[in-house]
Description:
single chain, alpha/beta, 10 helices, 14 strands, 20% strand, globular
Amino acid sequence: xxxxxxxxxxxxxxxxxxxxxxxxxxxxxxxxxxxxxxxxxxxxxxxxxxxxxxxxxxxxxxxxxxxxxxxxxxxxxxxxxxxxxxxxxxxxxxxxxxxxxxxxxxxxxxxxxxxxxxxxxxxxxxxxxxxxxxxxxxxxxxxxxxxxxxxxxxxxxxxxxxxxxxxxxxxxxxxxxxxxxxxxxxxxxxxxxxxxxxxxxxxxxxxxxxxxxxxxxxxxxxxxxxxxxxxxxxxxxxxxxxxxxxxxxxxxxxxxxxxxxxxxxxxxxxxxxxxxxxxxxxxxxxxxxxxxxxxxxxxxx
Length: 301
């Protein structure tokens, strides 16, 4: 039977947005909400239970140990970066939080899929693979799926085609060293770089805008959660329905020796295949640079 009990660990805005989007999809039998603050859990569960007018998915509060027995465990818990705080300090704090959160779930259901949404997602995904004891293929992160969604939306507006017809990826780190794989991007099998509209674009500016959109949203309203909520819910649905979709996910890439976003086929058994797509020499250099920055951070833990 396909997995359909989803635990969401972390009941803040991101966790609640994932639960809400997943309830609207109506594919999970039950959503378990877990957080260290019981009042937040109670409030979110009471609010989410009102979605029953359009969803048959049940939602309830749960313990960490119950979360460990879910079919899909979505981890959104983590510390936010303080103003002026070095990234390594943030990672150090989240390392301890993640170790505690996953430790509280043990023993984790052997068949469970763990989806990391907390940032920095690539580093935390690799840490979660170690802490959880699950096979690497069952632990992956949302990676650059949201960044790629933003890219496809932008390209769709420029070319006046549906975003689902744009095949383009943001790869590497979900962060400063991410890059757009322009050489492999297509619409209707035609390379994106052959379109006059794309040739006329400032592609570096496009990359900067995609990478900086989250910061713009945060500066305007304090946080981002709807986009990642939709993306994480889509990933859960893909697992539950065993869709074998290909998404740019944060996965362990053996040749790079760390977790980074690559086009990945996945289903209810987890990661099934990681695709190496054609990259230009400069894009491959950017991918290697992304990997080097990740490994430098991981070496400290």
